[in-house]
């Protein structure tokens, strides 16, 4: 069991087909106690209960400092420690450069980038006290190639910002034995793209993927487990590409 008795907070993990929930399920199967944080309290609680007994589902908007701090305080009151944080909550908008309005920019940057900062800030004092921790940030291939398949330029910018923030956190937190790494998923079949992928689009995307399939949520969960666990004990500040070879560079 790679995460026996570890407490893992995963944001945006209430969506049944999402990367966060798949990660929660894998972590729980490896002995972790999981804290799911998502927008809706009932959905978070229902997702946590699907993991088995002893997990926790909480509501918070990751872009709201007060809600984040309240949720982390609740998690600490419940479990007394936090070993792993997966900054997974994110939204995307498939719009083009000149159509980006302030509200689009704010919405997308707030969840991915501000959310990553705020939830990390909320758990770092505890990880420092414990003398150990692992933070995993979910970026996107969109950050690396300047636009993805669905995300607009503001999504690409938000996810590139996540990579910069991840690296800076890794430098600053290394001496505290807190590792910070990222995953850059390619196109993974979840609700974030549901209903927006025509057969034609799918074929043209597949033509650029050497492994010749779209990703599954479990592909990202496996990478998250590697980064969360001692298997990656000597890695910090790295980005794992999990994209079927879509971006070989
Ligand atoms: P999803 O839509 O299935 O799940 C996202 C979850 O985040 C949902 O449960 C949603 O309620 C939650 N959420 C949204 N805003 C929130 C907020 N303000 N506070 C708390 N929770 C919030 O999406 P997914 O595909 O599982 O995506 C997970 C992460 O992976 C996102 O950061 C996304 O950008 C990233 N990603 C996904 C893909 C892909 O192809 N699916 C590719 C690259 C990166």
Give a brief description.
The chain is of the alpha/beta class. It starts with 6 loop residues before the first strand and ends in a 7-residue tail after the last strand. The structure holds nicotinamide-adenine-dinucleotide.
Broad shape: globular
- Please tell me the overall pLDDT: 96
- SSE series: EHEHEHEHEHHEHHE
Taking all Cα atoms into account, the compactness measure Rg is 17 Å
Distinct compounds present: nicotinamide-adenine-dinucleotide
Going by CATH, the homologous superfamily would be NAD(P)-binding Rossmann-like Domain
Strand tally: 7
Q: Distance between termini?
A: 34 Å
**So what's the CATH class?**
Alpha Beta
Query: Strand order across the biggest sheet?
Result: 3-2-1-4-5-6-7
Uncertain residue segments: none
> Number of helix segments?
8
CATH architecture assignment:
3-Layer(aba) Sandwich
Q: Please, could you describe this protein's structure?
A:
This protein is α/β, with parallel strands linked by helices. The chain has a single domain (7-242), classed as Rossmann fold, CATH 3.40.50. The chain has helices at residues 19-29, 41-50, 65-79, 102-130, 141-145, 153-173, 199-206, 217-228, and strands spanning 7-11, 33-38, 56-59, 84-87, 133-138, 178-185, 239-242. Strand 4 (84-87), helix 4 (102-130) and strand 5 (133-138) form a beta-alpha-beta unit. Helix 3 packs parallel to helix 4 and helix 4 (102-130) packs parallel to helix 6. The longest helix is centred in the middle third of the chain and has 29 residues, at 102-130. The two termini are 34 Å apart. 49% of the residues are buried. It binds nicotinamide-adenine-dinucleotide (NAD).
